[in-house]
């Protein structure tokens, strides 16, 4: 299992870069999925 984070999203006015906004991203957790690998009739 690993945890990942991204840098915040940033947007700015095209001709006025001093006007900008940022939005943080939540951390995400990636884990393996446990699956049942059997006969289709076993379900």
Question: In words, what does this structure look like?
Answer:
The chain is about 0% helix and about 45% strand. It is mainly β and about 45 residues long. Strand 2 (about 10-15) and strand 3 form a beta hairpin. The two termini are about 30 Å apart.
Strand and helix map with partners:
Blueprint: E1 2-4, E2 9-13, E3 16-23, E4 28-30
Antiparallel strand pairs: 1-4, 2-3
What are the key terms here?
about 45 residues; mainly beta; two-stranded antiparallel ribbon; two-stranded antiparallel sheet; 4 strands; about 45% strand; rod-shaped
Roughly what percent helix?
Answer: under 10%
Structural class: mainly beta
Number of domains: 1
| Unreliably modeled segments | none
Q: Give the SSE string.
A: EEEE
Mean pLDDT over the full residue set: 82
Q: How much strand?
A: 35-45%
The side-by-side strand order for the widest beta sheet comes to 1-4
Query: How would a crystallographer describe the biggest sheet?
Result: 2 strands, antiparallel
Distance between the termini: 28 Å
Gyration radius over CA: 21 Å
Number of strands: 4
Shape: rod-shaped
Number of helices: 0
In short:
With 43 residues, this protein is mainly beta. It has strands spanning 2-4, 9-13, 16-23, 28-30.
């Amino acid at each position: 299992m690993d945890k990942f984070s991204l840098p915040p999203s940033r947007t700015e006015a095209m001709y006025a870069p001093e006007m900008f906004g940022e939005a943080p991203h939540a951390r995400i957790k990636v884990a393996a999925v446990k699956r049942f690998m059997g006969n289709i009739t076993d379900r």
